[in-house]
Amino acid sequence: MDTFDDGLNDIGRSNTNVTSSNNLSSPPPTLSSSAPPVTVRARKRREEAVRRLLHEVQAIEQNTSEARFAESNEWLVCRTTAAALEKGLDRDYHTELVQQAKDNAGRIGQICQDHAEVFLDSVGQVAALLEPTAHVSSGLKEAQVVLQSQTAGPMHNAADLHAQAVAAHKRATALQQVVVACQQMALQLERARKQASAGRPRAALAAVERARHLLTQPLNSEVMTLEETPFGKRALTILPKVETEVLGQARRGLNRWFLSLREDQGIAAGRAVLRQCAAHLSTGHAVGLGAAAAYPWRAKTADNLLSRLPQNNKLARATRAAYWFARDAPQEAERVEQRVQTCVQFEQQQARAKNASMNVSMQQNQSEQELWPELEGIVRKSEALAAAFGWYRCWDSQADLLVDAQAILAAAGNDTSRHGGSRHGGSRHGSSSRHGKSRSLGFRATTSSKSQAFAELSSTLQGSVALNTAASTTSQWNELLHPPILYEATRKAEEEAILWALPESVHPVRRAELAYQLLGRSDDFVQYYEQNRFGETKVEEGGKERKSYLSSLTGDDVTLGNDRIFFAKLLPHLTASVVGFCAVEAALELGHFEDEDEVEGNGEDNDVGEEKKTDKVQRPAPQNTSSRFRTSSERYERALVTELGNIFRARIVRATLPELVRASNLISAFRASLRIVHPSSAVRRHDKALLALDADILMKAVKIAQDEQLKATASIVAEDPKTPLLVTDPGSGTGGKNAAGIPDPEEVGLPFGLAQMKQEPQKAEKDFQEQHRTSFNRAPMDEAYTFSQSVPVVLRSLHARATAVAAFAIAQQELGISFPEKTGSNAAAFVMDGVEKCIGVAAMGMKDSDNVIDEGSVEKAVQIMANITALQHCLSRLYGTLLRGMTHVGLIRADEVEETFQYADKSLKAAEKACDAQIGSTYSLVYEICRSRIDTHITYALENFNWVAKATRDMPNAYCEGLIGYLKSVFASLGPMDEGSRAGLHFSCCGHVSERLVSHFSGKPGDVTTMDSSGVQPMTKIDAFGIKNLSIDCAELERFADSTGVPQLRDCFSELKTLTNLMLDKDLPNLLQPSNAAARRRKYPILSLEKVGNILEKYVGTGLSDKLMGSTGRNQEILFIDKKEVQQLLKIVKAQTH
User: Fold this and answer.
1) From the centroid of its chain, how far is CA 794?
2) Most Cβ neighbours (<10 Å): which of 343, 382, 812, 1000?
3) What is the DSSP track for 276-339?
4) Would the pTM of this model clear 0.85, i.e. be above it?
5) How far apart are CA 400 and CA 398, in angstroms?
6) CATH architecture designation of domain 944-1135
7) Which residues fall in a compositionally biased region of kind Acidic residues (predicted)?
8) What is the pLDDT of residues 657-680, one digit of tens each?
């Protein structure tokens, strides 16, 4: 191939040479137009031949290398053929070209011959012009010499001087322009620095733009600019630094704003919003519980609704008991206003003291005093709620609420009277009493005034359950129902000032936003703002890390702290922080920002002059980028509310009842605050779902109240001495009506009929007291109630807890929760269910407070039973007070009154049934204790007792006297019991004594089938004297039964009397005969022959010695049977029983 390529190259070169030679020698194409196109035909033939040759060569190249070497000869042949073909073609072509050259040369010669004459004429004319031209040339040369010698020299010198002057003027003008431009540049640089330091990005960047315009503006016609000078180059390096300083100053201001929000500003605004929303929610539309004129109107409305109920309804009568609208409603309204004014004045004093310590001006103090009426609403709402539920009509205003079970348990171990709150009574456990025991006038027996009572009470209530030392200046109900963040106003003026100034306080954001926009870096601003404003923090919970937006917002770890700290501190802090965040976002959305730089800039421009205004380069007006991060703001706000709802739902199940109420009121105010402070946010549509509690929160609340009531009752009753409360004012507690039919008011400290539950002494006890008084000239015995000191306190805790449950129901209604469907008002039915459960556990706690079975104290068991009975007696009045309160606050509407009272009646019956169950259990407990003590006494006294006396006694046996003495002590301790229960226990105890004595007398020794489970063994031997002594004991027991004053109590000993009389009856042999069965039944109707047979088996008959001694020493009224007669009578009895 290489050889072939070389040949082709040679052919190309030869063709090129021939062509070039032909072109040089050939005439123009116009002259050879008639020549035949030999060259074209030859070229075509040559190209065709070369094409065929190349085609064959390419076909050979596609063969393998072996074929290539094998056909080398063919390659040589082809090359030779191609060279020959080329030479032949060139020869023909050369011949044609030579012929054409000859023809063209002939034609040229002919043309030159035809035009020769004209050419020669032209040459002659040119030759004739040579002489005039020389003359003119000499004249010009002379004129040139004169011009140069006389005119051009001076003019040239003058022109040089003029050029020098113009150049100097230009340099001076340029220098002046440079100096002026440098002055202006320095002025703009200084202004830019000052504005940047002052945090005014618009003015600073405007100065930078003017400086940059001065740098690039031409100074002269030579297009010289200031940036070409050394000063300009230096200024060019300064301008970016000024812009950087503007950004840095804007970022520092933004960082300070972020820091102020996290430290105090955001949460202060949130606290102010929460406080104002809670105050306005409490007042409502002038008819809310917090409104000043609403209480009398609501009380009258409730009284009208309740007056329409039929009188045959027990609860309807209970609502009117001890309540008279014309008397009680004005007093309660006045008391509420007094409490409100007292609490507000106390808050004012606290604020003044703080302002004085901080040297606040008098003008600010005056502004604070003008804003104080806004705080009255929430305090009035709490006090009005307590007054509506009859708290101040029933209890002392300074009495502890006893709702916080945690605090009550924390104070366990204090003085035994730490839960006192009644003005009445003392303990019967102390100095001399009618039962021979010491009696003490503890539990404020000698105190009748409220001030002394409160002094004693507050001295014992210490720690968590201690009464507030400022009880007269603060509201316990307000502290119970509302978190402190809703009513504490120590920093009220300062926080509200921050809130009202919030739209203007966002200027650091606007300035930073403006600075970034003017520099064309809006995206950087949005990124930086979102990074610092909408941050998130990693917290560890349950061993796993999760994102916490609340921790990032507040700077606190929301997973730390127990439940008590969460509800007391963290939850108010979180809600205030979220409200503050929404308030700031709303302020940013308003866009209320006055740019002072623009005003100042206009003034400065006027000073510069009109000519400078045209030179100033205006930046485009910045666009508000708030809309760019509004989506991020709403997303972050939703994340905050969602996380708060999740934490609240997780913690609420472990809350106490006061924490439930406070948290519910706080969340209600929180939702209202969000709606007011940022209503345009898209998250407002989802607040209810995000903050909603679980559906079973109502049942959990009832369960929490039930558990806390049980704990509180156990703590209250634990230190109760279980002795009746003494009556200090015998004339109190009539519970009737005056001559005008107006019911007497509730007895403060002993409400709901407790004051009427006084013990009625028995007839024997009255006789003893009268005899004791007349014989020794002593004062009558103290009168006592049927209950002990713990009952009023337990009842007070129930009353306060029921009011707290009602407040919780009101808060849940405001939050929009759905109560379970019940008859009448669902919310009122929920409250009734909670009260019913609390009453049940309170009765249970009162019963299970002491292990009286192990102690064997009948007095305590009886007092417990009497306490539960007293609690049961108060339930109807308690329910009536609660129903009036729920009607007052609006939980029961006008169309729901009758149905709600029907449901309340069922709830009351269920509560009374629960108390009945505990009373029955306690009654059984009392009987078990008495029976156990009686069995122990009989077993101990009759063990190894010798009934073969050989003689009669003039007095009862020692065991009988001891048994009667025990029964006297037992029956004397039954005073707190009601008459029916007391009589029943008399019969039970006497019947049990009779049963044990009959078993001991007529039981069969060694017979396990008839053996008594009490351990009293039947006697093995007895003679006639022993039977006589036993009959004396029976008669003494009957006399004791008669002395108790209980009718027919002596009948309990009828069987024992029947057996002893039969065994002493001289007609016994005849009466035992089968033929005399009718006479025997008439004389001894309850006689058992089987028991007679058992007695005969152990009867010790008279023997031979007794017969020899005769009957001189025998009692003729007693039947003496010898041994043979005993056997005969035994056979007769067995014959009739088998």
Assistant:
1) 29
2) 382
3) HHHHHHHHTTTTSTTSTTHHHHHHHHHHHHHHTS-TT-HHHHHHHTT--HHHHHHHHHHHHHHH
4) no
5) 6
6) Orthogonal Bundle (1.10)
7) 595-608
8) 999 999 999 999 999 999 998 888
